[in-house]
Amino acid sequence: MSGGEVAGILVAVFWAILVSFLALALVRLAQTLKATTKLVADVTEQAVPLLSEASATVRSANTQLARVDSIAADVQEVTANASALSSTVSSAFGGPLVKVAAFGYGVRRAMGRTAPAAPEPAPEPAPEPRPRRTVIVGKTVPSARGGGRRNRGSKG
């Protein structure tokens, strides 16, 4: 056997190994493509009913929104009617009621002038104002019992 024949055998073995690896890679790729095809088919099979359910849900939501729109229009009409009724009642009874109240006030004042004035009791002392507290969102404020900053270090 000459050197050329040995080199030829080595090249043939190398090509055989390379072809084996490529064949193995192609087999794995074919398996992956089969699994992907099956997965896409399963997803399609499950997606079609989901889409039909979503379509039915959207139709139902549109029906409910139409009902809500009609209810909102009715509420707006009732509000306008209540406002009109309120202004009518106010204009019809407001003036006379103000006059009656003014008359009652005048009668009380007139009656108060004829009767001797009673001495007024001494006013009560005003309560002490509470200290202002500041609320800071997200912060915890120490309680007043723990002492000020000077006393914190001594508690051990």
* Share in helix: over 70%
Oligomer: single chain
Biggest sheet layout: none
Number of strands: 0
Radius of gyration: 47 Å
The number of distinct helices, counting runs of at least 4 residues, comes to 2
Helix-strand category: mainly alpha
Shape: elongated
Low-confidence stretches: none
Distance N terminus to C terminus? 95 Å
Beta-strand fraction estimate: under 5%
How would you portray this structure in words?
With 156 residues, the chain is an all-alpha fold. The chain is 74% helix and 0% strand. It is elongated, with a radius of gyration of 47 Å.
List keywords for this structure.
about 160 residues; mainly alpha; 2 helices
What's this entry about, in short?
With 156 residues, this protein is an all-alpha fold.
Question: Secondary-structure blueprint of this entry?
Answer:
Blueprint lengths: L2 H112 L34 H4 L4
